[in-house]
Amino acid sequence: MTTISSFKTLALAGLLIAANLLPGAEARVGLQLGNTEEEEQQQQRGLQSSSIPDSSGAVYVMTNRVGGIGNSVLAFDRDAVNGRLSRVGLYDTGGLGGTVGVGNGLTPPDFAGQTPATVIASPNDALASQNSLILSESGRCLFAVNAGSDTITTFAIRNNGRFLDRVGVYPSGGNFPLSVSQRGNIVYVLNAGGEGNISGFRYGDRLCTLAALPGTTRSLDNIDFNPPSILLAPGQVSITPSGQGVIATIKGTNSIHYWSLSALGFPSDSQIITPSNGFTPFSFTFDGNGNLLVAEAFGASTVGQGLAGAVSSYAINEDEGTLTLISGSVPTVQTATCWVRYSNGMAYTSNNANPTPSVSTLSVDSRGRLALIDSAAAGTAEGIDRPIDIDLSDDGEFLYVLNTGTLVNGAATPQISVFSTGGGTGLELVETFDQGLPSSTSSSNAAFEDTEGVFGLAVL
Q1: Measured between alpha carbons, how far is 314 from 294 in angstroms, rounded to an integer?
Q2: Phi and psi at residue 25, to the nearest 5°
Q3: In a domain, 214, yes or no
Q4: Residue 187: is its pLDDT beyond 80?
Q5: CB-based burial label for 8 (10 Å; 0-12, 13-18, 19+)
Q6: Fewer beta carbons under 10 A from the terminal one: N or C of the chain?
Q7: Do the domain assignments include residue 349?
């Protein structure tokens, strides 16, 4: 029997297709060509809520597939009570993943650090960025970058996060997009290829649509390749909590860039550049008072300089676009401190490189001052193995760490480490989850054309 709600759903889909917001071929999220029978069955289960226990959350990860069927988003059901995961779906983005690498092997004249020709890209850090996969503020929509095809995909989130409906695939406004940010009705994308740029979009939260904002593209004036080099490329873009500015970090120039935003979301013509307090400003987040917390990988002086990772905090002076240092390069006493998140007075970093792949914890006081609590709050004993992206549940009760795994004979097994934060008292392992995560593999091809791994992490 066809219900009134069914008629409404069909009518809405027809309107979207007619408006070219949901092109018929792209509106589907169903089964993908090349999927295994098990994957198809799991996707079907993602459409049937009656087969999945009730919960109030989800976790998303990108496969970042460079070739074949392209990039996809894996969806996992998240139990909000105990944090545990179960796989429910696989949804293609309609684009291709990508890997940062060595470029053409040349050394740009302004690069004072490690020669790119000695830096090897791998699935262990395919995009070398933060926020390649993010939720909208409302939790209604999901944004995914397709670095290999220079596009951004938006999904509408259905059924408590268990089902993704692909809305559209949009040109990113540049080459090799690797980070995206949304506040209100504005979205900014960070494109890393070549000189790099930021580019703005108008965002519709009800339908999860994007429309390019003409006149919002601003060059980073970086010196890099396309695809970019791992240590030269920018690392992240974010609109500030006030919505008055856009910030981006560039690893190779050790700099933090700020553009003021108009009320309509248009950036200033010129950027204010602040030298990073520490080498290789990789990623950043904001504390509860809007202060900027920057993870410093110290990878531009030497590649992942041993035990030199750190975090700095800055006050943002929105009227002038300047940054004032609060705490300078507080050591994590770990290597390659690349990703950072904040919740409830705590900063969490993932430290990617040996000898101790780990998660560090730092306290953040009301003035933005940092203090190291535990250099290795979680390590290899808790399943931490080449950690990349990290994210927290909205209430801060659970921390999720995406591990790519160490490459052995060209392959690795990714997994997600799930921790209870104990309200900031310490990390306690809940589970190490690897169901449905594709193996990270690398071919002998320098461009890693056959690579399939994981990148990006978003928690609903």
Answers
A1: 8
A2: -70, -25
A3: yes
A4: yes
A5: exposed
A6: N
A7: yes
Instruction: State the sign of the Cα–Cα–Cα–Cα dihedral 398, 404, 406, 408.
Output: positive
CATH number of the domain encompassing residue 172: 2.130.10.10
Pairwise CA distance, residues 442 & 450, whole Å? 6
Return the pLDDT at 355.
67
- What is d(CA 113, CA 250) in angstroms, rounded to the nearest whole number? 13
What DSSP character marks residue 4?
H
In which domain, by residue range, is 89 found? 49-459
Is residue 22 included in any domain, yes or no? no
The structural domain count of the chain equals 1
Residue with token string 């997009």: 177
Average pLDDT over residues 359-386: 95
Contact residues for 47 (Cβ-Cβ < 8 A; gap 6+): 159, 163
Are 339 and 295 in contact by the 8 Å Cβ rule? The answer is yes
Residues 273 and 268: their CA atoms lie apart, in Å, by 13
Is the omega angle on the peptide bond into residue 387 within 30 degrees of 0, that is, cis? no
Q: Give the C-alpha separation, 239 to 327, whole Å.
A: 22
The string of pLDDT tens digits covering residues 374-384 is: 999 999 989 89
Mean pLDDT within 141-153:
96
Say what the pTM is: 0.84
Which amino acid type is present at position 202?
R
- Asked if residue 46 has pLDDT above 80, the reply is no
- Tell me whether residue 277 is in a domain: yes
The DSSP H or E segment spanning 115 is none
